[in-house]
Amino acid sequence: MNTIKIPFGKSGMTLHTDLSKAEVLTSHIGEMKATGSEDNLVQEAMAHPIGSPRLCELAKGKKTCTIIISDHTRPVPSKHIIPFMLKELREGNPDIDITLLVATGFHRPTTKDEMVAKLGQDIVDHEKIVIHDSRNPDANIKIGVLPSGAPCVVDKVAANADLLVSEGFIETHFFAGFSGGRKSVLPGVSDQVTVLGNHCSKFIASPYARTGVLEGNPLHEDMLEAARLANLKYIVNVIIDEDKKVVAAFAGDSVQAHQAGCNLLSKYCKVSPKQKGDIVISSNGGYPLDQNIYQSVKGLTAAEAAAADNAVLLMVAKCNDGHGGEGFYNALKNCSSPEALAKEILATPQNKTKPDQWEYQILCRILCHYHVIYITDPAQRQVIEDMKMEWAPDIDTALARAREIKGQDAHLVVIPDGISVMVL
User: Fold this and answer.
1) CATH top-level class of 2-25+272-423
2) Is 173 a known active-site residue?
3) How many whole angstroms separate alpha carbon 122 and alpha carbon 106?
4) pLDDT digits (tens, 9 = 90+) for 146-182
5) Closest by alpha carbon to 394, among 375, 417, 368?
6) Which residue intervals define the domain LarA-like N-terminal in the entry (predicted)?
């Protein structure tokens, strides 16, 4: 009997099984050798921006600057990024008026306590901070039309800034290919009409809307254009390890710096099972990424990619914050079957896209082919069952149940952190 710790909330959860008969797929980000402290990595990247002047140069002659920052659902180590961005902006222009704009996308508003945890008390007390609201049309303004035909409507705080910059982190993303870069604008600070248009059923169904895929990805192409229309001039993006520590940093042009980060990350996160799993275990990387079921669909797609036909997928995610979206939850709860819901989604035109549709479209895709067992906070059992899935209190119990379904000799694949890998 062996043990392996799977991320779950802040504490983790232990799996007990014979790992000699299983495949364990992990990213190799831990092998990325950092050349200095987290602060030094960010400062070095900012001192040598890719495809762009330094931030202090960009600040000259500008009256206002908006820095798009991540919200509470992203483990971006802002304490190691924002102070240096603020410092360099003011070195270039001491009088520049700076606003931090929280990129909530379609998420709930970030609380003050969450802001303090992310930025530190000093920045929260002394900087101007605005939380984006995608559902408030008065706060947003149209700046163009996207390749998809959707209107590009973004937060006025971003659109009206003389200089728009952003922070972020780069990880694999289950339908945008990679996070970071252009995603700060779309969906980060975009109006719901733009997010809904971009996340339409046709785009989500594209075979190119997958983890690690940028070329040919229709969502990515829309996002690039949104960032161009918003005039996102400069980014600081980082790659983090499993301990959420910065191991690489990229600064400069929003396209070139982001691409450089994606290219490096790809080398470390590609994994491939020798044999597809009859049972596949995955997680969403623990806190803060596994706070709800909605976000945890990401890690589940890694299990999907590693699974044999009719496999049982085990998803380990605390989900202490519940389902993460009323529309997401009710769609699964109220449908007659995942197959019927999938058919309904695919018949939905772009301009009728519903909030959270993309998330339940992907979950439906998985449920149509696999039996899913969710390991969550016990308070979420009814929610899991309402959403046409099975609940278990811990991984060992779930694995025993999966073996009842697939047999004791079923091939087991374990992906400790489903959002850190690109399964080929």
Assistant:
1) alpha beta
2) yes
3) 27
4) 999 999 999 999 999 999 999 999 999 999 999 999 9
5) 375
6) 22-212
Q: What is the mean pLDDT of residues 249-271?
A: 97
Quote the CA–CA distance of 95 and 87 in Å, as a whole number. 12
Token pair for 6: 């799977």
Chain segment 273-302, per-residue pLDDT in tens: 999 999 999 999 999 889 999 999 999 999
The one catalytic residue among 80, 173, 199, 323:
173
Nearest to 181 by CA among 109, 76, 83: 76
All structural domains of the chain with their residue ranges: 2-25+272-423, 31-268
Helix (H, G, I), strand (E, B), or coil: what is residue 146? coil
| CA atoms in the 13 A half-sphere facing the CB of 418 | 30
The pTM of this model reads 0.90
For the chain, give the mean pLDDT.
96
Question: What CATH superfamily is the domain 31-268?
Answer: LarA, N-terminal domain (3.40.50.11440)
Strand partners, 102: 69, 131
Beta 140-145 vs 128-131: how paired, if at all?
unpaired
| Amino acid, res. 275 | Q
- 215 Cβ neighbours under 8 A, 6+ residues apart: 208
Give residue-wise pLDDT tens across range 172-221. Answer: 999 999 999 999 999 999 999 999 999 999 999 999 999 999 999 999 99
pLDDT of residue 26: 95
What residue type is assigned to position 137 of the chain?
A: P
DSSP annotation string for 164-211: EEEEEE--EETTTEE-SGGGGTTTTTB-HHHHHHHT-HHHHTSTTSST
Q: How far apart, in whole angstroms, are the C-alpha atoms of residue 398 and residue 402?
A: 6
Which of the following is catalytic: 72, 80, 107, 323?
107
- pLDDT tens digits along 13-46: 999 999 999 999 999 988 887 778 999 999 999 9
State the amino acid at position 367 in one-letter form. L
Degrees, nearest 5: CA angle 285-268-422: 60
